[in-house]
Each structure stands twice: as structure tokens, then as C-alpha cells.
Amino acid sequence: MRCRATFIPSLVSHFATMSRFVLLFPLLLLWACTPERVGPSASCTADATLPSATSHPKAAAIQALMDEYVAKGIPGMTVLVADSNGIWYASAGYASLEDQLPMQPCHINKLGSVTKMMMGALVWTYIQDGLLIIDAPISTYIPEVAAALPYGDDITLAMLLEHSSGIYDIARDLGYNLAVINDFSRSWTPEEILAYVEGKEATHRPGTAVAYSNTNTLLEGMILEAVTGRPHAELLQERIFDPLEMNSTVYFDYRRDFPRGEVTQGYLDLNNDGGAIQNISALNPGSGNGYTGVYSTVTDLYRFMRALLVEQTLISPENLAYIVANGLDTPGGTWRSSPGGIHDEFRDVLPADIHAYGHAGGDIGYSANLNYLPHNGTIFAATFNYGTNLNTPLGEELGALRRALIQLMAQ
Questions:
Q1: For the segment 370-382, what is each residue's pLDDT rounded down to a tens digit?
Q2: Residues contacting residue 393 through CB under 8 Å, at least 6 positions apart
Q3: What mean pLDDT comes out for the span 64-80?
Q4: How far is CA 378 from CA 266, 311, 407, in A?
């Protein structure tokens, strides 16, 4: 049990990627007694089934970038590159600042919204099995939930996946975020979260624009449970993690203590002033409800991306072609959505003819990137135990690092 009193001049909500966040509230006095759902970090054993190459043409440049940004204050990170030169990965910094425990590639890190891409793949396995229809109204599967949403009868499954539904984003709700920080490690049910969505206006009519909403993926999980009669966590394990031998991957909902000791501690600049960072590992912004909750390693992320976009064994080549061909531009043009939870990212960084398909993640205390660049056959995976407010000096440094890494991968 841990008790604390913390002044928080501002806090940034859990959000999906490095450019999609919201500054929430001015001054709070936080007094909380929370169980240690994420315990102290321990050393880990290297992934013997997927060893790192001893050398790689980009190894020195990647290591130099990691070391540079650890020196700037990011606690720790791990980066993997896999291409025709082989698979190489390494770490820098610390898994736990308090214990001065060095980060290792086998350490487990929270992925934030990279979880959404895994949920998208899971949904498509059920589309391919005939249990779901991509263009079906969500009222077909969750009629009572749809009836409580603006334009609920017009929203389709595809619109959830591509963020064109117009559904209010739970991560932007002040009431919900206050409830989260006042009960750090509470385990949230979908119904409890949706109570904060009820009565909120849509951002637009369904299908007419793109507006990122974590609520979309929460509803995907509810739809999966409605058609299967089983928790979607079990479905992720059965259809994604187990077949791909993602043995260091955990979908965590805070209903129990974290089951592995090799998890990293997550950090955030709670004071939002560029000063000291705080350990925020115990805070649960709704993990286990589809939009966040997967913890993993870069080698397991490689396994997932290889199966999804290289070997194309999770989603068929025909369906992947449909997903990519039906991408939608987003406000600002920094990324494109798709009806598969697979984004075309870094559009403001990479040339128009180079694509980085995948998903970024930013959660309270953690961040991640997972991309496939088809022009040179590169899989890029990175995890960071810092996130997610970017309007601070350290947050801006993290954004700069991610951009530098993807540019290096594109070479």
C-alpha cells in the first residue's frame, strides 16, 4: 500500500499517440492510498528464441540517439530494428530510476494505444470467420449501447476502427479523469466508463470526418464480447498472443497485481514544468478496456508486426489491401486512419511515397511505437517508460526522438 499527497498544476489525460493529447485541469491536491498493482522492477532474462544480432548497419546511430535522449532526461527505452540485415535491438537508461535498475530489451513496457492495433486485428479475425460484418451498424451487436449514443443507428463497425464515428472521446472527459486520479488503481468496467460518455454530443455526423476517440475501441471490445460470449481479453490471448508465442505480453486490467516482475516503472512530469519526473506506474486510465492495457517487449512486438503485415497470417492479404486502400486523412495530416486500426503514421515527417504502417501509443507513464515500412522491409519497435504530456520540455524531447528514429528507419 502506498499513500501520497501531490500538488498537480496540470495533468495530461491518457491518450493515444504522441500528437493526440489533452491538457485537462489546473490545480489539484491529490491524496491517494493505492495498492502496488505494478510492483518493483526486476532484472529479466533475454529472449533466447529471438536473439539480437551482434551488429547492424544502423546500430551505432540508434544507440547514439538512445544515449543522447536518456542524457536529456527520458528514463529508459528499448529499440528494435528488423530488416534484410537481420534483427537488432538494445536498450538505454533505467527500468526503475528508484532502484537504478538498467533497462534491458526483455523488460516489459506498457504500450498504450498500440493495444488498439491488436484489437483491430482481433476484430478482423472475427470478420473473416463471419461473426462480424465490417459495414454492419453497431446496433446489430450492442443495440442498447448504440441507442444511448448520438447517431447510434448510423455508426458502423468500420467507423469505430477508423475513428470516423464521431463518438465522444472518454479520454477528454474531465469527470472521468478526475475519477481516475482520485482512485489510482481502480479497475474500470466498460459500463462505468460509458457513463461518462452518456449525454455528450458527437464531434460530427458518423462517416463525415475523423476524430480520434478511445471510446471507439472500448466499443469494439464490447462487440466482441457480445458475439462470442467471452471476455475480449481471453480472445486476445487465444487468437493473437498464444499463436504468435508472445510469451512476454500481458493484457492488464488492474483487477490483480501485475503478474510479472520484469515490468518497467512508468514516469511523468506531473508538475508539467520541465522539472522532476514522478513514478506514476500505479495509475490506471481504464486499462483492459480495449484502448490500452497491453504490456509487452520489443521482441514480442516484432512477432506481432511480422505476422500482421509481413507474413499476413492474422488478416488475409485481400483484407489488408482493403484496409490500406480505405485510409482516411486526419486533421493536421500527420497520420491516416484505416478500417483496421492500422495507421499510416509520420506523414508530416516522411516523404509522401514512404509509409510507416502501424500505431503509436502514449499512456500515463509509458509510450511505444510499432511500424512496418514496406519500401525497405523494416519493422521498427520502440518502448519508452515516459509519457504522455508533450507540452513540456521532456515531452517535446520524446517527440523529437521518435521522429529521429523513424527517419533513421526509413533510410
A1: 999 999 999 999 9
A2: 274
A3: 98
A4: 28, 13, 12
End-to-end CA distance of the chain: 48
Residue 390's pLDDT is 65
3-state SS, residue 255: coil
Q: Pseudo-torsion of CA 181, 182, 186, 190, nearest 10°?
A: -70
The CATH architecture to which 2-37+60-410 belongs is 3-Layer(aba) Sandwich (3.40)
Q: How far is CA 262 from CA 167, 274, 291, in A?
A: 37, 28, 23
Dump pLDDT digits (tens) for 83-99: 999 999 999 999 999 99
Please count the other Cβ atoms lying within 10 Å of the Cβ belonging to residue 250.
18
CA 345 to mean position of chain CA atoms:
14
> Is the model's pTM score more than 0.90?
yes
3-class state of residue 2 by DSSP = strand
Q: Distance between CA atoms of 231 and 201, rounded to whole angstroms? A: 29
State the sign of the Cα–Cα–Cα–Cα dihedral 258, 262, 264, 265.
positive
Pairing of strands 267-268, 278-279: antiparallel
Cβ contact 138:156 at 8 Å: yes
pLDDT digits (tens, 9 = 90+) for 305-331: 999 999 999 999 999 999 999 999 998
Query: 116 in helix, strand or coil?
Result: helix
